[in-house]
Amino acid sequence: MAERIDGDALRVTRDAGMGSENYPSRVSRHPLRITAREPDFVAKVEELCGENLYACYQCGKCAAGCLFADHMDFLPNQVLRLVQLADEAVLSSRAPWVCASCLACEVRCPKGVDIAKVMEALRLLSLRKGETGLRWGEIPPGVPQIALVGATRKLTP
Amino acid sequence: MSDKAVPSSAKASAAHHNASRVTRHALPYFPGCALKDQARGFEDSARAAMAALGYELAELPRWNCCGTVYSLATDDLMRHLGPVRNLVRVQDLGETRLVTLCAMCYNTLARSSRFVGADPERLERINAFMDDEADYRGGVEVVHLLELLRDEVTFEAIEAKVERPLDGLKVAPYYGCMLLRPREVGIDDPDSPGVLEALLSALGAEPVDFPQKAECCGAYQTVSSPEIARARVGEIVSAARWAGAELIATSCPLCTYNLEHHQVEREERETRHASPVTRHEIPILYFTQLLALALGVSEDKLGFAGLKFDPRPLLSDRELV
């Protein structure tokens, strides 16, 4: 899924540095620069996740406790910030596909924002355009059906 | 106990929702896919342990897949059909309660029950989707076996029935996510739970505390990004090991798969050149297997054969099998 975040596809640009060339799919700890805005985007995500996105005040507690943040290009709070700023480029982020809905963030958010629901809404916006987060040819042999059903329900249209 | 799940007089009073009296120890129970397949030992040991405690887990007739993962979107009502169909089966029995063992089934069923039950309009829409079933009226309570053991059977009663105390056995209780989060359905504190520790103590074992006990194992990412699950399992297992655990107890077949599978992969990667003596995998058991063991259930009903890492050498060392 690394191609999702590669280079120019993103209108949110990230400064190079801190080994980002060596670890293109790792977390970027860089300032976000917003370059495009889609006015209906926030409403669309809010409708799909049922959360008040502007409740988030960027404390970063979700990112601090996220067990999957190491594998994300944008931290959970950064993803939320991009949605607040109505930048559809967030749909190219790897983060929603890495989120496993473990809800560690959900129980800790001081503002009661269920970030897992936001991640799911972002996944669904991509899935409903026909994208997929699962490559059929690369499924490891022997995974049990409980894992397969979970993965297909979360990561395929 | 008879095969008939519920005496008719008890059925009549089901509406009063005094579940502990109504069921008279025969409890409608939802197994789910994993317990009929890779986690057979979970079901077998749970049924044997509950029988030893005087309860019968009566398998829900015509149950179907719970959906495994709960849908988090507002417009995805279709994805609640699977769980709700199961709740209708409970309703058909005249029952008000459904017991689950698998943490993922528990979460999906309990959340769906709350989700559709909370809004009459939603309930009406979901009923409109279902042709073959009676309308779901709401109100079926989904209970995890651990809750039942804690709140109804009570750990004191369990302790009194222990025949083989698991003396000195150091067990790391691993909760994962779906038993604890979100709060609305969590059976214990979402970050710092203690119900498994209390059960293990009642069985005579020594619960081992470790910081990763409520952290995610990687879940279904084991399919799409196995390296993520491998990293998670590495942290969890090594923390449990550092804390001195000899066994890890779980309540989720997916956690168990990940903890077993990625533990092997990790071991193979990291200790390829180490001597066999230093390679020791930690057996991953379902909590019901330890419960059944302590209650004196015979070894053939404990389901150890299905485990990747055989706990029997350790247990026989402690004269428990």
Explain this structure to me?
The complex is a heterodimer of chains A (157) and B (321). Chain A has 157 residues and is an all-alpha fold. Chain A has one domain (2-155): Fumarate Reductase Iron-sulfur Protein, Chain B, domain 2 (Orthogonal Bundle). Chain A has helices at 41-49, 61-65, 76-84, 95-98, 104-108, 115-127, 145-155. By secondary structure, chain B is of the alpha/beta class. Chain B folds into two domains: 19-146, Glutathione S-transferase Yfyf (Class Pi), Chain A, domain 2 (Up-down Bundle); 155-317, Rossmann fold (3-Layer(aba) Sandwich), CATH 3.40.50. Helix content of chain B is 42%, strand content 9%. Chain B has a four-stranded parallel beta sheet with strand order 2-1-3-4, with helices on both faces. A four-stranded parallel beta sheet of chain B has the order 6-5-7-8, with helices on both faces. In chain B, α3 packs parallel to α13. The longest helix of chain B is centred in the C-terminal third of the chain and has 18 residues, at 253-270. Chain A binds chain B through residues 1, 47-50, 67-68, 70-71, 97-98, 100-104, 106-108, 114, 116-117, 120-121, 124, 133-135, 139-140, 142-151, 153-155, and chain B through 32-34, 37-38, 65, 67-76, 79, 102, 104, 177, 180-183, 186, 190-191, 215-216, 218-226, 228, 231-232, 253-254, 257, 261.
